[in-house]
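Schema walkthrough. Field components (list of strings):
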Amino acid sequence: MSSPSSRTIQTVVLALLVIGLIALALGGYLTPISRYILTPLVTAQTWLATRFQALQSYISAPQDVARIRQRNTELEAQVSKLQAEIIDLKQQIAETRILSALVGFARANPDNQYSAAAVIGRDASPFLQYVIINRGSDNGIRRGMPVVNDQGLVGRIAAVTATASRVQLITDNASTINVRLDPSQAQGVLQGQITGDVLVNMIPQSANVQIGDLVLTSGLGGTYPPNILIGQVTGVRKRDYDLFQSASIQPAVDFSQLQIVLVITNFHPVDIGPLVPTQVAP
Amino acid sequence: MATLISVPIFTALLILQTAVISRIPLLHGTADLVLLAVLAWGLQKRVQTAWQWGIIGGLMVGIVSALPLGTSLVSYLLAVMIALALRQRVWQVPILAMFVATFFGTLLTQAIAVIALRLYGNAIPFGEAFSLITLPSVLLNLLLAIPAYALLGDLAHWLYPEELEV
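Field assembly_structure (string):
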């Protein structure tokens, strides 16, 4: 049994010891000691916490998979929606490019007045190279008006209704256009073929026609305005015993991709029929 | 009813023809949906309005196409004649009859178109027209002959239901 005075002394000594340790800790003197003590503790706790988290994620995995699958479905739906938007935007960009090119062409040729029209169909007969456009007499379209796009000459209006028109392409077998070649300035007659090719016939034998020459409308005959680009010479056929030479042409216009065209509305074709001499019976 | 229903059908077929089918050529030939419809209708055994369909189809194509006036009307009426002649002889094998009618019907309509165009001053060369346009068109029409026959067959069953014997 210890006396009360010795207990008091123990208490005071313990208090002094605790205060001393706290003072040493606050003063930073216990840091090396605490490092030696805490390092194995932290290592052990890290090991245990890692294993526990692994176990926890293993146990809770099914819930996460379901959530991830749901999220994946949502994201896939979002991707599909965005892809549809991309396709729509690409379509709009393509249309804008075409319209921009057509506006550029109209600005480059300010003398003409244009009416833009969309190609909505092709002729039902495979023997004919005609397209149908969505502008008609209500929009000021008249028979015989030339049709162009930013690449060059497309054809001319062959028939008109109130809201639609039929365009005879320059590749049609019955299409004939007076043309001149540049730079040789030789005159010729451009004719379509059922194959969709175009040829320039009736070129004088004396003309110096070269591959790569440009083919432009000459304006003769009054059916087309002059100087509209048609295409380029890709081959020349010249034989000594022929009266004329001929040339095959690569059209500037891609007729398989026609989408939007311009009708030149201020050009009115001239009917030279009455001026063509006819044989009078004796 | 059976005659009037041809108007919306031919309208839809013409829109499909000019907007889509004519843009999908094989060489330079294309399928002719209206011709296939006229032939398939004419081969249905209970149908009594084949001539009316030929007239309406021919007139509607004539309005849309730049072919000389009356060309499509004449050619489709002759196609109806082929279909009716085959129906009376080989109707027991309708698919075979459809193939034969499509083959000869396409040849006939395209020959009439070439002749009419030449008469109007459009000098289409026979050889190139046959090899580059007519033969591919025949092939495309033969490919579409069976679905056309099946669809028009369903329509004929709907409009001309079989009588039940009591």
